[in-house]
């Protein structure tokens, strides 16, 4: 992807976890992101506010003060130390964009969440809904939204994406690329702990393959 040499196509999707107390990234994020890093992997950080007016939820990280920037550094260093490529997802309410303007500005990647279901609670898929975007956008195209190992592979095989981002599965499986490689069973995610403030529970205590079998 651009100048970045990725070793596999399993991306950590951006996941808001609401553990950056008072909008400052915390040391527990070092372990969390580092657990989810493998050599040559792409990680997209949780949505990160660019100003104090950008905030929509409490305890989400920011990157507009010196303190926040300094607090990100050990987290980024830990990801780099394990050979990961780390992008910050900058966020502001009201952001708009489209593929033509993305091309014009030479944007490296475009990450889109597929509306997989036509109606809430109905398991009727809307297949290939991002294909027009994929065709219009010249850079690296990353899809997300309800993918598992099998249909992620299918999207790649059919050239509907360059990379596949995983949210809930990666949240619950720090070694997701390894598990996909081995076709190993996955830990189940616990929705109850997605957004709790705890710095460990449901955050860095999901077991790796070695300890879960
Ligand atoms: C706990 C949680 C937090 C999320 N936070 C963000 C976020 O900060 N930015 C974003 O673009 N998407 C966010 N998403 C969407 C995910 O990046 C992903 O697109 C979505 O979970 C669908 O992928 P999945 O089916 O593999 O989980 C979040 C999803 C979950 C479950």
UniProtKB/TrEMBL annotation:
<feature type="domain" description="NADH:flavin oxidoreductase/NADH oxidase N-terminal">
    <location>
        <begin position="2"/>
        <end position="104"/>
    </location>
</feature>
<keyword id="KW-0521">NADP</keyword>
<dbReference type="GO" id="GO:0010181">
    <property type="term" value="F:FMN binding"/>
</dbReference>
<dbReference type="InterPro" id="IPR045247">
    <property type="entry name" value="Oye-like"/>
</dbReference>
<dbReference type="GO" id="GO:0016491">
    <property type="term" value="F:oxidoreductase activity"/>
</dbReference>
<protein>
    <recommendedName>
        <fullName>NADH:flavin oxidoreductase/NADH oxidase N-terminal domain-containing protein</fullName>
    </recommendedName>
</protein>
<comment type="similarity">
    <text>Belongs to the NADH:flavin oxidoreductase/NADH oxidase family.</text>
</comment>
<feature type="domain" description="NADH:flavin oxidoreductase/NADH oxidase N-terminal">
    <location>
        <begin position="109"/>
        <end position="186"/>
    </location>
</feature>
<dbReference type="InterPro" id="IPR001155">
    <property type="entry name" value="OxRdtase_FMN_N"/>
</dbReference>
<keyword id="KW-0288">FMN</keyword>
<dbReference type="InterPro" id="IPR013785">
    <property type="entry name" value="Aldolase_TIM"/>
</dbReference>
<keyword id="KW-0285">Flavoprotein</keyword>
<dbReference type="Pfam" id="PF00724">
    <property type="entry name" value="Oxidored_FMN"/>
</dbReference>
